[in-house]
Amino acid sequence: MVRRAILIASLVLGAALSTACGAGHYVQRGADLYGEGRYVEAAEVFERSEPRLARAPLQERAAYAAYRGANFVALGDLRHADLWLSVASNIERKKPGTLRPEERAFLDGAWRALSNRTPPTPPAPATTVIASSSQAPSPNVEVAPANAPIREPALVPQ
């Protein structure tokens, strides 16, 4: 339910941004398709226009990366979504203000949508060493090496 609400909010924001986006026509076209929920078509537009990215102004590159990442989230390709959202975030981090406030909000929403779709990290295996003084064995406890054979207690006194 929460995931759906975030995705819907992302779509609404995407539609609003697509009408206000001052980026290049290929970014605009992909953003329009994304805003309409036509993710496969948007992916095709983004993929075909990727070679133009090297010559595009920084603002267009950041917007492109944000939309492409959000589109990958919508398609369920979380690995590529993370890659493209990271590109947009890195551009914005290195040069704050590259993304307009509404684009920055869109990027933040895309990150939230990605985190809601990413499976939780499994707990560490029991054999993992935890570097914490509260987890360390007390000095009077004898700890056998991990590869030592397990000795069963003797049932008969020796």
Q: Can you walk me through this structure?
A:
With 158 residues, the protein is mostly helical. It has one domain (2-117). The protein is built from six helices and no strands. Helix 3 runs antiparallel to helix 4 (58-75) and helix 4 runs antiparallel to helix 5. The longest helix is centred in the first third of the chain and has 19 residues, at 2-20. The radius of gyration is 25 Å and the shape is globular.
Element order, helices and strands?
Answer: HHHHHH
Overall 3D form: globular
Helix content: 55-70%
- Given the helix and strand composition, which structural class is it? mainly alpha
Strand content: under 5%
User: How many discrete structural domains?
Assistant: 1
Q: Mean pLDDT, rounded to whole units? A: 77
The largest β sheet comes out as:
none
Q: Give the termini distance in whole angstroms.
A: 65 Å
Kindly summarize this structure in a few lines.
This protein is 59% helix and 0% strand. With 158 residues, it is mainly alpha-helical. The protein is globular.
Sum up the structure in keywords:
158 residues; mainly alpha; disordered C terminus
